[in-house]
Each structure stands twice: as structure tokens, then as C-alpha cells.
Design a protein that fits this description.
Blueprint: H1 10-26, H2 33-40, H3 44-48, H4 54-68, H5 80-87, H6 97-109, H7 113-129, H8 131-140, H9 149-168, H10 176-190, H11 193-203, H12 205-208
Amino acid sequence: MVLPGSGDDPLRDRLIAAALRVFARKGFEGTRILDIVREAGLSTGAVYGRFRSKTDLLREAVVRGSRHTGRSDMPSLRRVADLISQGGQVTTGPLTDEEAVRLEAFVVARRDPEVAAALGEAQSTFRRRVQPLVDAAIADGTVAPDLDAEAVLYLVRTIQLGLLLQRGAGTRAPDPAAWRSLIQRIVSSFGDPAAAALEATAAHPDVHSDTPNRSVPT
């Protein structure tokens, strides 16, 4: 996997990609700089000439991974509701390297301010990326005007992280259909009732139209 980078320093990009793979396999505490060097096929001098520490490598892996994750999916999303539905899907199978490193970073961030800052930067990147969806949601009533959009997005990230944690731990997921039904109900609760009524009227004008006028005998 090649992470997006500046392209000015291909060895730096190789080290970050290698670090991501090793962190995913061994975890942060179980990884040594030498492991990353061997994975990248480089020398230790290549690391210390570009990164201050193992923590610095983890930070870069988290930030660059956040720029890569979901990028290909964004064009297909049109509403915050789509973001929630997609992010709230129950999936099975092992975590990808990026997913595993993301979980690892949350654990390390509890005691490392630099990694915590990297997660904050990753979340800021996510926030900028979804701004068009937020604007559309406010305009079309997908998110009611009395709801805080930031709170909704925080819930989205919390659901995504929780699902990632459950899958990483191998916890058995609920019935997929039942879970989808729950997520759909949550998404529906965000909407503006007035906008929903207008949408229903437009979709079924005969059902929602007034009773036709009857001719009155003269």
C-alpha cells in the first residue's frame, strides 16, 4: 500500500508505509525502529535522518492514513445520512493496516501528547472533508435546525470507532438487518420534521392532498 505523500522524499514515504504495516502487526509497544527499517528495506540512518522517534513515525502514519481513508468513498456520498449509514455498517474480517493503526493510536494517545495531536489533526481533516455534506444536510433538512451539526458528526466518529474496536476484539456483531434498521432509525431522528413532511407530500401527492371539492347542488 502506498500512502499519499509529497513525492519529494520517496524514502520517507517508504518508511511511513512500512511503519504502518509493522505497527498494525506488532502494536506500538511491540515495534522497534529496526523492525520498521527491515520492513522498508532501508538503514537506520534513513529513519533518524527523517524522524525523531518511533512516536514521530506513528504520528505521520496516523495523519497520512486519515488523508487516505475514505477518500475514494467521498464522491459517492451526498448527505450526512449517507455518511452515518456507511460508517455505521457492521463488517467482518480482520482490520486493515490503517484501521489497526488507528486503534493503536487511540491507545497510545492516552499517554502521548504528540499522538493525541496527530489524532486531532486527523479529525480536523475529516471535518473539512465532510463540510459539503453538512451544508447539504442543513439545506435539505436531513439535520434539523435545532440540532448541532458538530454533535452529529461526533456521534458519527464515535459509532465508527466503536465498531472498529468491537471488530478488532472479535466481538460478535448483531444481526446485520437489525443493525441497519437501528441505524436508519437513528438517522431519521436527526431530520427536520417539517422537511420530512414536505418530502412525503412531494412523493405521494394523492395521499397528502386535501379532499377534492364536491359539487354543491344549486
